[in-house]
């Protein structure tokens, strides 16, 4: 069964704790933490201290998506008992292999994200080191954007590479995911779906998560 990782970027920040707990109780498998630095992407979201303010609540584990430059400097700030994945961008890393090892050195699973214009081939030399590949289905920086269909082809290609070479990475898709495309993504081989506005923009967050989970 595929997993659901609701993005807190679309939550009401004035009641972040409540919304994180509500989503977790409703069945969210992870909480997707979108970190934006205003350099790698044209927006600023929140940093490690905001994420860590959720540590005291009973929530799903964190799935951290770093849309930032200088990942080696900041990745360690996002390590907590609840951190499952830290994902960095291929486009933001000069020494990608080193940055993956750096995340692993904390005992945390490492992911690499690919922007819509970045080809899978760029990961050829690190595939064996990865726990997660995050396929961006929008250009990162903002929630609520339209799904870019090339992502579906990428998921299929990654799933076929994974089985051909007997690799272990999970495949995650992020951006414009909703109830209309979730099933196709899962059928293509996606293991973790990120959904921001489709979850936290819903009138009834709990019901929306249950509806997602039925499709997965
Ligand atoms: C985009 C972020 C996404 C975003 C998803 O830069 O990485 O995680 O919050 O939001 P929706 O689901 O609204 O496209
Ligand atoms: Zn994200």
Explain the overall architecture:
An eight-stranded parallel β-sheet has the order 1-8-7-6-5-4-3-2. It has 216 residues and is of the alpha/beta class. It has eight helices and eight strands. D-xylitol-5-phosphate binds next to strand 2, strand 8 and helix 7.
Low-confidence stretches are none
Going across the biggest sheet, name each strand in turn. Answer: 1-8-7-6-5-4-3-2
The H/E string reads EHEHEHEHEEHEHEHH
What structural class results from the helix and strand content? alpha/beta
Quickly count the helices.
8
Beta-strand residue fraction: 15-25%
**Rg calculated over all Cα atoms:** 16 Å
Shape: globular
Distance from first to last alpha carbon: 6 Å
Q: What is the helix fraction of residues, given as a range?
A: 25-40%
**Hetero ligands:** D-xylitol-5-phosphate, zinc ion
Count of distinct strands:
8
Overall residue-averaged pLDDT value = 98
Instruction: Profile the largest sheet.
Output: 8 strands, parallel
Compile the SSE list and pairings.
Elements: E1 3-6, H1 16-26, E2 31-36, H2 48-52, E3 62-67, H3 71-74, E4 83-89, H4 96-104, E5 109-114, E6 132-136, H5 150-164, E7 170-174, H6 182-188, E8 192-195, H7 197-200, H8 205-215
Parallel strand pairs: 1-8, 2-3, 3-4, 4-5, 5-6, 6-7, 7-8
């Amino acid at each position: 069964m595929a997993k659901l990782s609701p993005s807190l970027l679309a939550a009401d920040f004035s009641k972040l704790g409540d919304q994180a707990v509500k989503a977790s109780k409703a069945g969210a498998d992870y909480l997707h933490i979108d970190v934006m630095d205003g350099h790698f992407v044209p927006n600023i979201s929140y940093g490690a201290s905001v994420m860590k303010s959720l540590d005291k609540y009973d929530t799903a584990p964190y799935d951290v998506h770093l849309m930032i430059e200088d990942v080696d400097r900041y990745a360690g700030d996002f390590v907590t008992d609840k951190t499952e994945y830290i994902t960095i961008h291929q486009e933001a890393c000069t020494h990608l292999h080193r940055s993956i090892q750096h995340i692993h050195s904390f005992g945390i699973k490492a992911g690499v994200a690919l922007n819509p214009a970045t080809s899978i081939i760029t990961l050829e030399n690190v595939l064996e080191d990865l726990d997660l590949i995050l396929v961006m289905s929008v250009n990162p920086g903002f929630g609520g954007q339209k799904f870019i269909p090339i992502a579906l082809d990428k998921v299929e290609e990654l799933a076929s590479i994974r089985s051909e070479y007997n690799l272990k990475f999970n495949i995650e898709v992020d951006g414009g995911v909703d109830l209309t495309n979730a099933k196709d993504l899962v059928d293509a081989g996606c293991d973790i779906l990120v959904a921001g506005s489709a979850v936290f923009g819903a009138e009834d967050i709990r019901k929306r998560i249950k509806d997602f989970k039925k499709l997965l």
